[in-house]
């Protein structure tokens, strides 16, 4: 498949098979959400990041 055929197929795939387009959209959303989770900063009791309770200006205390 050359570039022009690929671009034409991408423009028409939703009209040709709406069910497959829905499956493709679900897969894309799942992958996008999974990648977003991988990029999240760690959260939890032992995380020593910026504290948002006091306006986010100080580090969490260890005491």
The count of β-strands is 0
Largest sheet properties: none
> How many helices does DSSP assign?
2
Which class of secondary structure composition applies to the elements?
mainly alpha
Supply Rg. 22 Å
Order of SSEs: HH
Proportion of helical residues: 55-70%
Shape: elongated
Mean pLDDT: 78
Low-confidence stretches: none
- Give the percentage of residues in beta strands: under 5%
How would you characterize this protein structure?
The chain is mostly helical and 63 residues long. Helices cover 57% and strands 0% of the residues. The protein is built from two helices and no strands. It has helices at residues 3-16, 18-39. α1 crosses α2. It is elongated and about 55 Å long. The chain starts with a helix and ends in a 24-residue tail after the last helix. The mean pLDDT is 78.
Record the SSE blueprint.
Elements (H helix, E strand, L loop, with lengths): L2 H14 L1 H22 L24
Helix pairs in contact: 1-2
Give me some keywords for this one.
63 residues, mainly alpha, 2 helices
Task: Give a brief description.
The protein is 57% helix and 0% strand.
């Amino acid at each position: 498949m050359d570039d022009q055929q690929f671009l034409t197929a991408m423009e028409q795939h939703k009209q040709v098979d709406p069910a497959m387009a829905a499956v493709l959209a679900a897969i894309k959303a799942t992958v996008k959400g999974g990648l977003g989770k991988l990029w999240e900063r760690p959260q939890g009791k032992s995380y020593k990041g910026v504290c948002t309770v006091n306006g986010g200006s100080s580090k969490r205390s260890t005491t």
